[in-house]
Amino acid sequence: MTVLGSAPPGVTATPPPPLHHGRRRRARNRSLWVLSALALALVVIPVVWIILGVVARSVAHWQWRALVTYPAGNGGGLLNAIEGTLVLVLGVLVLAGGVGVAGGVYLAEYCGEGRGQFLRGASEVLSGVPSIVIGYVGFISLVVYLHWGNSLYAGMIALSILVVPYVTKMTEVALRNVPTSYREGGEALGMRTGYVLRKLVLRPALPGIATGLVLAVAISIGETAPLLYTAGYSSRGPTFSLHTSPVGYLTYVVWTDYNQPFASSHDLANMAATLLITLVVLLILGTRIIVATTQRFSPDRPQRVGRAPK
């Protein structure tokens, strides 16, 4: 007869772990939490410092009329740069978004393993090419060889080439994270491959694809070197002409006017930097709205937002 709480005959009872082992685990757990909080602070503090510094400088001399007027001498407004930046962003969304999403779908759903490795490697190499090199190649091929001159479309193409690898990679990763059971269930119901892709695979992958597009737009908004070679600069609004149609953009104002010996130019540079930060924040908020909308009826949403289903 075995006494309750004792080990069976022939089996040596395992003694409970010493008390100091539990203390060690708690100490390690607290140390990891402290290190994680420190790492988060190292990311958040510089971002907050930069944003507050830029906004404080611009608010002190903010002029609303600068948003609706064109430049004039050492002052004026930022309307040409705002229009040019928005047009460039739309162009990048169309060109880089279309090519990048299509490339990610091909790599995730249709491409063989051997050919996929080569294409992924080429995409990673392209993402590592410095932006000024892409701008120089765009200058040689589009501005000089094709005789486009500094133009809006040359700038769009250069920026799109720069960010296409990011959209492709994010799209492929998002599609590969969709469970295989979605595809198998659609095929079992007799659905065609294209219909399964559109209705069952792309919808759950939409948050990841939207994140890739926002990343691409954010990178393109902050680039200056490729546009100096291809888009040039103009104090007027975009003309949408293929040949010799330079366009203004906000990063040029930040880069150029801040080095001018005039207070009015410094004010424009600070306002342009604040507008760039505002655009990035709006893009991030838009992505959050897309994610929340597309995941509203997801079966695991209650667990992800911390609410168990009733």
Write up what this structure looks like.
The protein is mostly helical. The chain contains 11 helices and 2 strands. It has a two-stranded antiparallel ribbon with strand order 1-2. A hairpin with a 2-residue loop joins β1 and β2.
Core attributes:
11 helices; 1% strand; 70% helix; globular; MetI-like fold; two-stranded antiparallel ribbon; 310 residues; disordered C terminus; mainly alpha
Per CATH, which architecture of the domain at 87-294? Orthogonal Bundle
What is the residue-mean pLDDT, rounded to a whole number? 83
What would CATH call the class of the domain at 87-294? Mainly Alpha
**Order of strands in the sheet with most strands:** 1-2
Write the layout of secondary structure elements.
Layout: H1 19-59, E1 71-72, E2 75-76, H2 79-110, H3 113-127, H4 131-145, H5 152-176, H6 180-188, H7 193-221, H8 225-230, H9 250-257, H10 263-294, H11 301-304
Antiparallel strand pairs: 1-2
